[in-house]
Structures are given as structure tokens and as C-alpha cells.
Amino acid sequence: MAGVPSLNARLGAEFLGTFLLTFTAGCNILGLQYTWGPVSIACVLMVSIYSLGGISGANFNPAVSVALGLVKSLGGPGLDWRTVGLYSGVQILGGIAAALFYSMLFGQTFNLAPNDGFAWLNAGIVELIYTFMLCFVVLNVAAARKNAQEKNQYFGLAIGFVIIAAGYGAGAVSGACLNPAVSIGIDVASIGMGFGWCVAYAFFELLGAALSAWLFLVVRPSDFGYFSDEARAFKAALVSEFLGTFILVFTVGLNVLGKSLAGAFSIAAALMSMIYALGDVSGAHFNP
């Protein structure tokens, strides 16, 4: 029987996964792959999760690691804060290294900032909401105690498709980083063009992570040792339906107003990911 992966192996996996994610994002942006870029990024995240999830848990994102740390502190399944700190550190290093590599490869780079016509608050809102969605889906399809028995094989697909939902939806507003390591990497690589937006982006992304941990407790109280009586189960179902419907309608609106190149795909991806996350909580209707 295989032993538990060493700390070095886990940190190496987190570095590699974050590097691949950030490098792919940068290459798609600099290569002007606007139509299929979000799909490419989602696919590299998905295959990296399936490849490395058994080694490190495949966080590849300080926001995900912080969400798992908060869940653990609340009494649920997650990561201790030492591991969160170590993971976050190597993830940020992986993001910076990848950003420097794609900049050298193309001989140019791009700066981190809200897109034309949008301010810091617009970018912050979409980064918060979709980072929440990403962390929340991770918690429900990969960290929830039910997965220890269920051993589902859809977790990587559900997590990867969050990027499709956000890439086409929020991409027109903020660029859809959803990841402090990506935000910091992009900002460091383009420091000659200005630096500082990564602080605002990371702030909102970490707020989204904190929100995901709290709402994970609300929809799965039994994972935190609370007795799931009929009242708690009903509350969890109502919150589940609200969250799924909110994400669905929000994604519809962003795709329509942003004149997305793949609106139907983005909306379907948002719906699919939230169904996988919450189907066993409320049935995932998300529609009267």
C-alpha cells in the first residue's frame, strides 16, 4: 500500500499545478486566444487536479487553501494552518515563476487591472463571487465528508468548469483571476507597467474564500459535528437553492451584458458545477 506523500512531494505538486495554471492563462492571453482561452485554462486545471490531487489535494490556489484552513478551524474537514501557509507560499512562487516564463516566451507581458470601463469595485465584486464559487465547489465535491464514502470521479470536472463559467462571465470585467497566486504572478511579471492591483484582487478573492467556508458550514452542518435535524436540513436546502440560483442568474447576466463569445457554454458550466456541488443537499433545482 502506498504511503502518505512527503511534505516535499506535496509542496512540489502545489508548485507544479499552480505553475501550469498560471502559465496556461498567460499564454492564452498573450496568444489572443479569447474564444477558447477559458476552456484551455479550465482543462489544464482539471487534468492537474486529477493528476496531482492524490498527492497534495490539488489546491493550486491560496484562496482554496485558506478556505480549507477556515473549515478546519470551524471543526470540519480541511487543512491545518501550517499546511495552509506552506501551500500558499509555494503556490505564489509557482504563479510568479510561470508569469516570468510566459513573459520571456512571448517577449512581452500584460498588466493586472480591471478592464476598460470598470473600476476596482466592479472587479472586486466578480472576483469575490467567482472565487467564492470556486472554493465552494471544491469544498463540496472534494472536501465534504460524503466524498470519503462516495469516492466520486467528477470532482475535477466540476472544479474545472467553474473556470469556464467565470472566464466567459467575469473575464470581461476583471480578467477572472480567482486566485491570489495568479494575481500576484501577473502583477510581479508586469511590475514595469505598474504594481499593486494584486493586493486588491487578493483581498476580494480571500473574502470569497471566507464566505465559502461559512456557507459550507451552513449547507453541510453534519460535516462539522452538528446534528442534522429536520430544521437544519430544511435551512441547508433553502440556502443551497438560493446559492445555485444566484450563481446561475449572475452568470447569465454577465455573459449577456459582456457580449460573451460562449455565453451558453459559460451558463451551462455554472449550472453543472453547482449541481455537482449541491445536488445531494437540495436536489439542485435552481429554477421554479
Chart the SSEs and their pairings:
Layout: H1 7-30, H2 37-56, H3 62-73, H4 81-106, H5 120-143, H6 146-150, H7 155-169, H8 180-189, H9 197-219, H10 230-257, H11 263-282
Describe the structure.
72% of the residues lie in helices and 0% in strands. By secondary structure, it is mainly α. The longest helix is centred in the C-terminal third of the chain and has 28 residues. It is globular, with a radius of gyration of 18 Å.
Radius of gyration computed on alpha carbons: 18 Å
How many strands appear in the DSSP assignment?
A: 0
Low-confidence stretches: none
| Coarse shape | globular
Q: Secondary-structure element order, as H and E?
A: HHHHHHHHHHH
| Class of secondary structure makeup | mainly alpha
Features:
mainly alpha, 11 helices
Question: What would you say about this model in short?
Answer:
The chain is an all-alpha fold and 288 residues long.
